[in-house]
Amino acid sequence: MNVITMTEEQKAYKSSRLPVSLYPTKMREEEDGKVKYHARTMFRSKLNMEDIAKDLIATGVITDMTEEKIVSVWKKINAAVLDRILNGSVVDCGIGTMYATVHGSFDTKLSEFDPENNWIDVGFRSSKETKKYTESVTPVIGNGKEQIPELKSVFDVETAASDILTPGGQIVLRGKNLLVAGENEDIGLYFVNAETGEEATCVKSEKLAKNSSTELICTVPALAQGTYKLKVCTQKSKTKPTKETVAEVFTSVFSVN
Predict the structure, then answer these.
(1) Which helix (H) or strand (E) holds 53?
(2) Burial of 208 (0-12, 13-18, 19+ CB in 10 A)
(3) Distance between CA 202 and CA 191 in Å, rounded?
(4) Cβ proximity of 122 and 85 under 8 Å
């Protein structure tokens, strides 16, 4: 199915209404006090092949197949496409192209594939036609249920600096939606290596001297010399805790000397 055909058949569906919410991009560092915002899609739900099959039948796009038959054919197509991809082909599915990618490093040009260090994934690149089609969609901007943590300032008690972390000393984080709460294992305040992106250590909520939406206070862990970013992982939301962890890595970089 090419995109031109899809465009004609798209008339059977409701007009596109992509829901998005705007969140602050960085700390308020600008001299004029203004903050830039970026958009995040407010995902309505996660659908499977059965759900799409129901859509095809409900809209009348397909009238001569049952839901079970549509799903059966779809699975066969997926298997055939995946077989081609994993044998080195690039498959154009209309919406975009899919292809195999290999990740991880190799020691030499003659190194063998090592499952412990290397892995295969499937990449996707949207087609020019799809990108052109999306130009006709105007997102609907609203407020999401997730409350994204926003960092406004950091104060290192030992040095009275805003860009230094002192291991063993205390830091004060001020902002919005900072409360570290939830039952997921990854909930906490993280110190992330700014060079490698690795999470050096995590301070759990019970170890925070103060834990509120506007302020966090904690003792800086025994970090090695280097540069770090702060990351908050929480399940806090406007109404009830989110199932998935809301994670935000702040852009500011801090030094440990």
Answers:
(1) helix 49-58
(2) buried
(3) 6
(4) yes
